[in-house]
Amino acid sequence: MTLTFQEAAQILKISPATVRNWLKAGVLKSTQLLHVKETKKNISSGVLNKLQRGANKHQSRKIHVHAELLSNKSNVTALAPLIEKYGKQKRELLLAVYLRQLVATGLVKYKSGKLVIGARLSAELSEWNISHQSPAFMRMYQSIHSLKADFSDNLLSYLHQSVNETAAKQNLGAYYTPASAVKKALKILDRPGRVCDPCCGSGNFLVEAYRQMKLENWPAAELSVFGYDCDPLAVLTARANLTLVSEGRVNVLKAIQQRDFLLNQPVEEFEYIVTNPPWGSYPSVSQTGRLQKQFSLKKTKDSFSFFLLASLQSMKRNAYGNFILPQAFMNVSAHAEIRRYLFSNCTVHSIEILSEKFSGVMTKSILISLQNKRPSTEHEVLIKSDVHCRVMNEEVLISKDCILPLHNDNTSLKVVREIESLSKCTLKGQSSWGLGLVTGNNEKFLFADPAKGRSPVLTGAQVFRFKQPISQLYCHSDISQFQQAAPLEVYRQSKKLIYRFIAKELVFAIDTKGSLTLNSANVLIPQSKKYSCEFICGLFNSKLAQYYFTKKYSSIKVLRSHLETFPLPPYDEELFVQIEKNVLKLRNSFDQQTADRIDSLIVKAYRLSKASEEAILNYEINRAFNP
Ligand SMILES: C[S@@+](CC[C@H](N)C(=O)[O-])C[C@H]1O[C@@H](n2cnc3c(N)ncnc32)[C@H](O)[C@@H]1O
């Protein structure tokens, strides 16, 4: 049954214009009742965000539904018409909902169509700079007053996030933390002390910290919560949330202040800092330089690193810090400098790979627990993943780039370390590399048919293990006009390796046709007589390589640094020739027996222990990448 726009809008509690937009963006498949109901379900489960993610985030003005911030999911539907109607008056909307929550808790009275605000709250409310008795504001308030919603829920954080435009959120790194991750991070509070969130957003950590303090009967809980944020509306929202949870007992004007925590740190020092700082490169390039100088960093550009260092400066000696960071912290070379700093200067107690998903954020996250004291020489860091393992702090410090093991059980940790210790050679300095093309306009430059002036071009999806890739697309041969291109001779080599750039495993093939590649497929040309194209193809497609790559990086992108630092086995002519011959056999047709043979030969080349050999050969790799 097909509905009119009006009918679909009524069910979804959005305007007919939004129905039209959602159809265009693919968020709503059609106005058939079935699809409308499906989208309604997606709204409440938070799946809607995923569907909306496609757009270019830096320019996006779309509204993301952050259902993960709510305990009562029926509030998503209850608040949808408010967002629709008042989304552009965000500040007024937040204040009106806050006042409604204050009425629900009895802290403000609503009598004969008027709000009666006592002296205790008037200073805080006047900071909003909104005349809350004006007829326009009261009309908004009245429509909220009669709304059937659960006003005890985290509505302000939800609205602050959902109404914030995606581009603005990305610039401030302002994605707030789901409640379960906040609780995990606050498990650290084990004895009375002052807790600070230096970039508190809408105050999720502060509210939960206060709740815990009250539960544990901490003395002076009202004086123990501190928050800062540079976003003035976030500050007002955080204060509102803290007033609600403390029933007005905390002096929120003192506790939460607008402040750029990096440029202007408070004088106070804290016993605990618990936060999810902004991630991503610092928005202003000129300030990045200033912050690098301020924190004596040379290469670091990421906001979270500056926040870690600023937080350490605001932590008392021996104070505890819990930080939610992107998983990339553990193993991406761009974060090597901050890793080295932390492992040299702090006691990192544990790193937990979090299962929580932040809606609108693709990256996985971790929780790092540290203490502001130098690590002892025997100190071990606990890595909490599916299976827990421990690494010596010293071991992290002596490893190149201080890369941390990931998704490791103790066996795979041993195997990875064994591979690294038995091999001294890498491709660095004996290979050349090329990124695939970025045309800037695929519609204009890519074609399905060959013609004069066009060249075959390969994409990642056409690369399968071992098989000569066959292109199904053509592009302008004049690549100088494209946004990104390697020198033409890189693509035109008589023999080169091509690999998928976006993949959880390594997928390599040899191209002998001089094809161009798009940026989903990159180029590697080994330049060593010992490690030939065929050998590297066999190695990187092997079980051993998948084992090492996934256990060490768990990445969805295959970076040049991953491959350039991959430990190569010692040269053994006889063995290498056998591997090369088997690789050549698989060029035209794939057979599992030959692939298994290559796996055994590769393992043999590393001269590993029996236990490691077994772990690798029993490892299941993704066969979808075989042709
Ligand atoms: C990822 S959000 C986290 C908010 C809150 N900690 C939470 O997890 O719910 C990061 C916050 O950092 C704030 N922020 C960004 N740069 C800042 C700075 N230099 N000083 C203080 N706050 C900042 C943003 O406004 C945003 O609210």
What CATH first level of the largest domain would be assigned?
Answer: Alpha Beta
Which stretches of 5+ consecutive residues score pLDDT under 50?
45-62
Question: What does the average pLDDT come to?
Answer: 88
Beta percentage is: 5-15%
Task: Assign the CATH superfamily of the largest domain.
Answer: Vaccinia Virus protein VP39
Name the descriptors.
single chain, 627 residues, Rossmann fold, nine-stranded mixed β-sheet, 19 strands, globular, binds S-adenosylmethionine
Task: Explain what the structure shows.
- The protein has four domains: 1-45, no CATH class; 47-168, no CATH class; 194-404, Rossmann fold; 431-625, Adenine-n6-DNA-methyltransferase Taqi, Chain A, domain 2 (Adenine-n6-DNA-methyltransferase TaqI, Chain A, domain 2).
- The protein contains 27 helices and 19 strands.
- The protein is of the alpha/beta class.
- Residues 45-62 have low confidence and may be disordered.
- A hairpin with a 2-residue loop joins strand 1 and strand 2.
- A nine-stranded mixed β-sheet has the order 5-4-3-6-7-9-8-10-11, with helices on both faces. It has a four-stranded antiparallel β-sheet with strand order 12-19-16-17, covered by helices on one side.
- Helix 1 (5-12) packs across helix 2 and helix 6 runs parallel beside helix 13 (232-246).
- Helices cover 41% and strands 15% of the residues.
- It binds S-adenosylmethionine (SAM).
- S-adenosylmethionine (SAM) binds at residues 172-177, 197, 199-201, 204-205, 228-231, 234, 260-262, 275-276, 278.
